[in-house]
Automatic annotation (TrEMBL), chains A, B:
InterPro entries: AB_hydrolase_fold (IPR029058), Peptidase_S28 (IPR008758), Ser_carbopepase_S28_SKS (IPR042269). GO terms for molecular function: dipeptidyl-peptidase activity; serine-type exopeptidase activity. Gene3D superfamilies: alpha/beta hydrolase, Serine carboxypeptidase S28, SKS domain. Transmembrane segments: none annotated. This is Lysosomal Pro-X carboxypeptidase. It comes from Tetracentron sinense. Keywords: Glycoprotein, Hydrolase, Protease, Signal. Belongs to the peptidase S28 family. Pfam families: Peptidase_S28 (PF05577). GO terms for biological process: proteolysis.
Amino acid sequence: MYPSFRYRETQKEMGSFNGVSSVLLLSWLLVLLLCTEECLSRIPSLLGRPRGRYGRTHRHPSLSPSTLKDFQTLYYDQTLDHFNYRPESYTTFRQKYVVNSKYWNGSNNSSPIFVYIVGEWDLTEGDYTNIVADIAPQYQALLVYIEHRYYGESLPFGSRKEAYRNASNFGYLSIDQALADLAEIITYLRKNYSAEHCPVIVYGGSYAGMLASWFRLKYPHIAMGAWASSAPILDFSDINPRDEYNTIVTKDFREASEDCYNTIKESWAIIDKIGSHPKGLKYLSKKFKTCSRLNTSEDLRDFLCYTFEEAAQYDAPPDYPVNTICNAIDGLPPGTEFLTRIFAGINATLSLGCYNTTPETDASLKMDPWTWQACTELMGSNGQSTNVTMFPQNYRPYISADQCMSLFGIPERPHWLVTEFGGQDIKLILKRFGSNIIFSNGLRDPYSVGGVLEDISDSIVAIKTTQGSHCLDMYSLSPNDPDWLASQKKKILHIIEGWMKEYHAVWT
Amino acid sequence: MYPSFRYRETQKEMGSFNGVSSVLLLSWLLVLLLCTEECLSRIPSLLGRPRGRYGRTHRHPSLSPSTLKDFQTLYYDQTLDHFNYRPESYTTFRQKYVVNSKYWNGSNNSSPIFVYIVGEWDLTEGDYTNIVADIAPQYQALLVYIEHRYYGESLPFGSRKEAYRNASNFGYLSIDQALADLAEIITYLRKNYSAEHCPVIVYGGSYAGMLASWFRLKYPHIAMGAWASSAPILDFSDINPRDEYNTIVTKDFREASEDCYNTIKESWAIIDKIGSHPKGLKYLSKKFKTCSRLNTSEDLRDFLCYTFEEAAQYDAPPDYPVNTICNAIDGLPPGTEFLTRIFAGINATLSLGCYNTTPETDASLKMDPWTWQACTELMGSNGQSTNVTMFPQNYRPYISADQCMSLFGIPERPHWLVTEFGGQDIKLILKRFGSNIIFSNGLRDPYSVGGVLEDISDSIVAIKTTQGSHCLDMYSLSPNDPDWLASQKKKILHIIEGWMKEYHAVWT
């Protein structure tokens, strides 16, 4: 069963909370609840990209109760801080992980351990199924799913409220700590299952894919291979020119229709012009069916930008949201107003009674671990629109350094990740160092600009398709997969199977 | 000029402070002051080995004032905690480093940067000269020396007293933080010298050698090669059986003389027997010329054990302290008492007016960053003597977990280093992962048991000599070097030169 897209439903459900006073916080919690698939359910805010507000999710094959019972939820007493020895650092918290040992053949056969890395969302049943998990019976593998600290139930300080209370408590949320968490749990599991000599393969998508590749590089003695799907590990300020993300979004729309691209590109000035009129915001609110009256035309612009970005990022079969939008924009009779066309595009893909264009409040951003991560490590430079894209000149990033400082009181450390994991030269470095990493990308995904798109060495390889979108290749093989997608998935499985064969040849 | 050993002088100078009330603290400070050579000046307490109390140093070629002025002392504003984002972690401290750019040919030629990693001692002029620094003129290299956090002048919290005040302040002293310090400073220097494409080679001895090899593994994008001299990276509890260190000390003595070995082995019971008599301690104090009256016979045993261990670790030409001890023990007429022989051995190598056998106080241990490191990360299991060694059955380790808990109030995390850097399987892992590391060892050095003694791959290689001792190969080439030593040094330089050639072939 192929997971069809529910691109509209999240916005629909968020819309239904519109009358509630704490609408944004609730929306955000709802998005978290819905974010259950293998890959990102919402656009990560890396580099200031939108997130959360227009979160989306995929429909998963439902697991039967008898299948679900094979997945055991467990908790590991995780060390709060792995890298310093202040007395507070010894504090532990319960980190959630899930194990399925139904197919596990014990350590004798050196059966593999497949570790699915959960990114910035709750670990739920929706994560259980993916193309790697699907080969567990064939390889008698142990399936492991590890939740990320500060997400879901894996909360230091006992509760969400305490964990997110302030920068002192949030401070232990960092990529290095998250990687060390994985190292500790996997080491513990290998011992616990007498599986010290069993091959471990880690995998994940988007941010979790970045974690997978970095884990292989930093802990090669723990994971013998990593698959990073749609992982923009090169997407930092010193590596890619800014605005590359929006360049790809623009390309996707332009490929769908040059007219559509032009309509969007020209709409921003019209919106700004109307918005500056005394009754302009009232007019725009009505025109775009906003759930509440617009306070600024920027809020409308942000909503439209985010919707277009998300459509491109998840531009996947069978719906192809970019085409849906452009078909609606182009499909109106000649002479139709630009804004009428734009609204038709939005309405075609989201199809809601009204549209929530209210920005997230500071109160809700302050309680968001992903905002914390964006503000400390992942921000890089913010995308600035240029003439080469269809986005407005005064495009507003998801969050700014000033806003971060005001939310959390700490500055970002934008260069640390490049120092820690490598910047411009990392591809050249990896030619001679490291092995067994798959970087897979779909080139319609705007994040592919930060991805590794060419083979680096015999065993650090790039798999890509021009038609693919964000993390699409992680879903179970389906008879409905287009050929190019089925082929990408099979290539990935073939390489992983090759690692296991090589491992067995050497170690057993 | 070959640096001859001054094995006796440290003890002599420490002895001269005997009348001072704060003798131990002062001794310790003195040892720190004397610890200026390339390699360890005192036995590191890894795995509970002795340290500090019987510290020793090498005689260095004095540098002329005109040479010294080429070495510029600088300070980097280092981040207190690289791995978490609590507001306190953003605090900086001044980390000392030294640069010699006299030979540096700028970045055009891709001249190399040689980074000497300073271990658990003050960075001083004594560190400036070594076989890698010696080839700087030939390769137009930039010479860099980086002091370790919490040692020398590189003190967080503004002073030694504050840095060492308690576990909260000491807590930021960890290996991961020290490696990240190196990453930051080297990245800064590459940028500052427009040397982003210049090859960086890191090197160091003993603990600093461990740091060098780990740095290459964790930060391959920053250092393209590492030389780890006498670095016991395999010397952790899950890898080597305990007591291996003392097995090598025993072998060294046994090779010098079977009689000497037997005399030492049988002396412990005699010491214990005499010590248990009412006037026994007075007798032993006189017999062994202790500076103050022995409180327990264990203190004498510890002093003897440490002296034998250090003699083996630094059993180097031209003095060969193990031979010095055994020649004195064996050289007395037949029928001479065992303890008279033992004292003659000690006196022959140390030659002091009196011997300081008083154990370090808790107050002095609490102010020692190396004790902190031993108590948190580096302790592993403590050596326990067995019948295969010449050491007493009830051999006392340098420090115990209980003592650590009482000193600092925190438990050790003995498994973290194995999780972080690899345990039993690291050699097999490195066959397929990583490149460009030299592990050099002298097999008379008891720490060689924890060293990498066989080639792992084409470019992760082991260089060893049966006659060498701890870090001996780091000193400048000298016409007085025995052939085996000169050959070991030349092999190491040849490999480093090969890395640079390969780098230039690929990058320029």
